[in-house]
Amino acid sequence: MSTEAFAWSILLIVIVLNSLISIYGIVYRRSLVKKLISLTMLSDTVFVIFIMIGYRIVYPSVPPIFTSLTSEDLEYLRQHAVDPLPQALVLTGIVIGMAVNALIAFGIIQAYKLQGTTDARKLVEAALKEVPEE
Amino acid sequence: MDRYLVLIVLLVFTIISALVLAWLNLLNPPTTIKTLGLTYIENTYFGPYSSMSPEAVTAIVWDYRGLDTVYETAVFFLAIVGGLSVFRGVKTRASTMKGIGLTGIAKTSTKIIAVMIVGASASIALHGHLTPGGGFQGGSTLAVAFLLIIPVFSVYSLLNMNITSEKLIATRGIALTAIGIVALLPVLKNLPLVSNISFYPSHIAGMLTSGSLFFYNLFEYIAVASGFTAVFIYLSLAGVESEEK
Amino acid sequence: MILTILLLVFSSLLSLVFVYLAVTEKNLLKAIGFSAGQSIAYSIILHVFAATDIVLTYIAVSVGIYSAVLVYVISKTEKYEV
């Protein structure tokens, strides 16, 4: 049993639990704002999984950035650097996700203006009432 | 109290199952990275497919996977436009209303901090091809400066300074168009879309600018910062209209 | 090396606590505070994983902008979840 394996297992279990709790929040909580908070936490968890895939446990592990433009530095990075590809994918994902969540926030404010509530079930009831009966 | 009991059960469950997993030696962290990642590290400055940038992440974002990022920027554009179109009717012109804002102490310290944030964000964005950072990072940092100014000085001070959301959206449109032009220009010389080193010079006046990476970072910085600031202005004005009536 | 592992374990457990509290909290303003705490825990994890670029974006977006947008939404709508 190594301490690295222990830390790695803790992180994996926490990620699974965090995703499950966030999905519970998205599905079962009534308030739309609470659903939005859970959604941001779920997407953050997914980003952590991505970064975790690119990590390697060497001491010290450094970011994939040259500090001096020499071939010794290249050799050092080859031994110690983490994977740059997941970082590049997550980087755009964070900013785009932020813009999409701002769109959802606008939608919540508009729903409150129209119906006077942010409770998902009441919103559905109000929407069903407005359907004209045949 | 029930809530905290469940929390303690969750924590104990996590630690015990992690101990079991570690004892069984099922999960071990990797000690190598994938060959693809290694290829990017080897090629980012040296190597045959160099993009002349010491920063591998920025090189992937704007060169190796440049087309992906251009499309993601299009999604960013649509998301912000969709959000703003919900509030089409909100008045965002400079009005006679004057916000009070917070006390003088808060205003003075915010002035100092806002200037520092602007400096730091510009350094993050414009050195993005040399050090950690880039257009996305610098832009979201700059948006925090406006985020501080809006509650402390009130949103009307921004509007009276002629920073309206229409102008910000126009700025964002210009910056995104510039990104498109930088991506399209290599086509004129029969090179593929989003070419970097084969079309743009890697050094300008002796400074390493890594070809097109510098321009992409600069324009993305402007686009992200102005887009988010426009969102904040709309959000802080959204409910005011109905209260006035 | 032992510091890396300690930071990883500590911030993982911290994020679990904050996520659970944020989802079960009735007062939405408090829930936003817990969500920001979860973001800080995650940014410690990202720092341990040597993702400097991500940390620069994540801190600004997740602790600053998300919280502010959500507080704006709450100030326009309801403060408590029924």
From TrEMBL, chain C:
Coiled coil: none annotated. It holds the Pfam family MbhD. The keyword DNA damage does not apply. GO terms for cellular component: plasma membrane. Residues 13-78 form the MrpA C-terminal/MbhD domain. The chain crosses the membrane at residues 6-24, 31-49, 55-74. InterPro entries: MrpA_C/MbhD (IPR025383). The keyword Cell membrane applies. Keywords: Cell membrane, Membrane, Transmembrane, Transmembrane helix. It is found in: Cell membrane. It is a multi-pass membrane protein. This is MrpA C-terminal/MbhD domain-containing protein.
